[in-house]
Specification:
Elements lengths: L8 H13 L6 H8 L3 E10 L5 E10 L7 E7 L5 H17 L5 E7 L8 H17 L8 E5 L5 H14 L26 H14 L2 H7 L9 E5 L3 H12 L3 E7 L2 E4 L6 H11 L9 E2 L13 E4 L18 E3 L8 H10 L2 E3 L1 H4 L2 H15 L8 H19 L5 H8 L4 H26 L6 H20 L4
Parallel strand pairs: 3-4, 3-5, 6-7, 6-10, 10-11, 11-12
Antiparallel strand pairs: 1-2, 2-4, 7-8, 8-9
Helix pairs in contact: 1-3, 1-16, 3-16, 4-5, 6-8, 6-12, 6-15, 12-15, 15-16
The chain binds nicotinamide-adenine-dinucleotide (NAD).
Nicotinamide-adenine-dinucleotide binds next to helix 8 and strand 7.
Length: about 475
């Protein structure tokens, strides 16, 4: 918690929860149970570094709720990790899964290290040791708790986790489902890597397609030609920028650790990424202007601002200077409750993290289902669909005496690949969740913001699930 914030991250989540709970019918005890973190595992373990010294590593795994099993949530590597942060992120996972109808409880893990300060071999040792600590305490498993990537982790770490888990649990037939976000060769699913960014895009696109909402924001319908600013060019930020650009929006600014760049004509995220790789910085990108500070990007004139780096970046201090009309919370907890109050006054629409960045967990769910079913998506139906489409097209051409173009033929006949099905499942999930939340908000004008409407959706679903289990008579 930094000195200019009134609340810790977990307290911020509780505050948002309480604000929403007033609009529900559930009694205090039920709400208290939903809010509480059920299990908190704080651990310390030693690791021998490459220079022979021994470092004691601080790490956590929090299971916020078991109203559905398994628990699900990423593992973060950052030197900012602390128990409060992991608790907050775990609870957001519970609400997120409920909103997008993914049948998991919330969980989250964190290791307090800056991965840049360690060799690959040291990171592998730390990740494997962390996994074995989780196994020892029964804090991981396809039916217990299923981690995934988060800030500072990716496919490589997930591969180490599944390898460690399956070697400690030989013969466990569903062992590959102990973690998601794995490389394809280790049981991953096609479409996972870009899932969170694509989900952010689908969610904001759906909001932008709502005529009444756009009218209120003074914007035209659709994403074409909208100006977008993205903070963080990591997994989530990169893909969000990519899908907006491909859909015809203009990504006018990108911000990273070292600074921010601006180009009114739009930036290509891949070119910026390559430039950063080659020079070590996004600054001095050809054709773009360097901004004085990286946080200046958050205060630019734009239609859509996407914070996709870390929490608490828009707070009571800088929110009054934010000029975006829509904020899409791609990161977890990027805007504080104080910022929300400022947005409400200024009429800024903040599309909340806990459903907007649910693409990762949604596709993780698809990966977990793939692991349990032991079959690649599309394997059973792709050829059948192609044969059927060929037949139908042949009949139409014969009866009409006309032929479709080669390009159309290719499109119509195409049977779904794994990635097609994953993207389609994600699109359906994000559109449905956006509409459900907007419907709650529109039905009761006293609900102050979309975050509160999202929490109401989550609270109702989790409480109903507890009630159906008979836990709350
Ligand atoms: P990542 O490590 O791939 O990328 C984060 C990027 O932000 C890095 O490039 C980093 O250099 C940059 N960054 C850090 N501090 C910054 C600052 N002050 N200003 C500008 N840039 C800064 O992580 P990610 O997976 O993209 O996760 C980003 C956020 O999205 C996190 O809050 C995470 O919890 C959330 N999230 C991630 C996923 C996922 O599937 N990866 C899913 C849901 C939510």
């Amino acid at each position: 918690m930094s000195s200019n914030q009134a609340y810790s991250f977990f307290e911020s989540v509780e505050k948002s929860f309480d604000k929403a709970a007033q609009f529900t019918k559930w009694d205090k005890g039920v709400l208290e149970q939903i809010k509480a973190c059920n299990s908190i595992y704080s651990m310390r373990f030693p690791v021998k570094l490459d220079d022979g010294s021994i470092e004691v590593i601080e790490a956590y795994r929090v299971q916020h709720s078991q109203h559905k099993s398994p628990c699900k949530g990423g593992i973060r590597f950052s030197d900012e990790v602390n128990q409060d942060e992991v608790m907050a992120l775990a609870s957001l996972m519970t609400y997120k899964c409920a909103i997008v109808n993914v049948p998991f409880g919330g969980g989250k893990g964190g290791i307090k290290i800056n991965p840049r300060n360690y060799s690959v071999y040291e990171l592998e040792k730390i990740t494997r040791r962390y996994t074995s600590e989780l196994v020892k305490k029964n804090f991981i498993g396809p039916g217990i708790d299923v981690p995934a990537p988060d800030y500072g982790t990716g496919e490589r770490e997930m591969a180490w986790i599944v390898d460690t888990y399956t070697s400690l649990k030989p013969g466990e037939i569903d062992g590959a489902g102990c973690v998601t976000g794995k490389p394809i060769t280790q049981g991953g699913v096609r479409g996972r890597k870009e899932a969170t960014g694509l989900g952010v895009f689908f969610g904001i696109r759906e909001v932008c397609n709502m005529e009444d909402v756009m009218q209120k924001q003074g914007l035209s319908v659709g994403v074409v030609a909208k100006t977008v600013v993205v903070q963080g060019l990591g997994n989530v930020g990169y893909h969000t920028a990519k899908f907006f650009r491909e859909a015809g929006a203009k990504v006018v600014a990108l911000a990273e650790y070292e600074g921010a760049i601006y180009n009114a004509d739009g930036l290509n995220e891949e070119e910026v990424f390559q430039h950063r790789k080659a020079t070590g910085s996004i600054l001095n990108f050809p054709g773009a202007t360097n901004l004085a500070k990286n946080t200046d990007a958050l205060e630019l004139e734009c239609d859509i601002l996407i914070p996709a780096a870390l929490e608490n970046v828009i707070n009571g201090e800088n929110a009054p200077r934010v000029k975006a009309k829509i904020i899409g919370e791609a990161a977890n907890g990027p805007c504080t409750p104080e910022a929300d109050e400022v947005f409400a006054k200024k009429g800024i629409l903040c599309v909340p993290d806990m459903y907007l960045n649910a693409g990762g967990v949604t596709v993780s769910y698809f990966e977990w289902l793939k692991n349990l079913s032991h079959v690649r998506y599309g394997r059973m139906e792709k050829r059948f669909t192609e044969n059927m489409n060929t037949h139908i097209l042949g009949q139409i051409e014969e009866l009409s005496g006309k032929k479709v173009s080669d390009q159309e033929r290719k499109f119509i006949m195409h049977g779904p690949e794994e990635q097609d099905l994953v993207h389609s499942g994600l699109e359906e999930t994000m559109i449905t969740a956006t509409r459900e939340i907007m419907d709650i908000w529109k039905k009761d004008p006293s609900i102050p913001d979309m975050r509160t409407a999202a929490y109401i959706s989550a609270i109702n679903k989790v409480a109903t699930s507890y009630a159906e289990l008979g836990i709350f008579p």
